Amino acid sequence: KMYPNPAYGDEIYITTATNGNKKIAVYDVFGELVLTEVITTNTLNISRLVPGVYVLQVTERKKTMTRKLVVK
């Protein structure tokens, strides 16, 4: 689960069933990697992202989910 989406502030929250360490990769619309981070909490700082549409890839315990993220 990822919220808020669209994101208006500097943070988004990512919750999973186990809430362990998560490897986050954020891609822009051109498929370029613009942000990578490993988070131990459920908070991801997105203040470096300019407004636009991104693809967010979350990997945790060999499972990966992909979501569309809109930054306003």
Structural class: mainly beta
End-to-end distance: 19 Å
Question: Beta-sheet strand percentage?
Answer: over 45%
How much helicity do the residues have? under 10%
Task: Let me know the largest β-sheet.
Answer: 4 strands, antiparallel
* Unreliable sequence segments: none
Order of helices and strands: EEEEEEE
Widest sheet: strand ordering:
4-3-6-7
Alpha plus pi helix count: 0
Give the overall average pLDDT: 95
Radius of gyration: 11 Å
How many runs of DSSP E, i.e. beta strands?
A: 7
From the spread of the alpha carbons, the general shape counts as globular
Quaternary state of this entry equals: single chain
Walk me through the topology.
Elements: E1 2-3, E2 11-14, E3 22-27, E4 33-39, E5 43-45, E6 52-60, E7 63-71
Antiparallel strand pairs: 1-2, 2-5, 3-4, 3-6, 6-7
In brief, what are we looking at here?
The chain has 72 residues and is an all-beta fold. The chain has strands at residues 2-3, 11-14, 22-27, 33-39, 43-45, 52-60, 63-71. A four-stranded antiparallel sheet has the order 4-3-6-7, with no helix packed on it. Strands 1-2-5 form a three-stranded antiparallel sheet, with no helix packed on it.
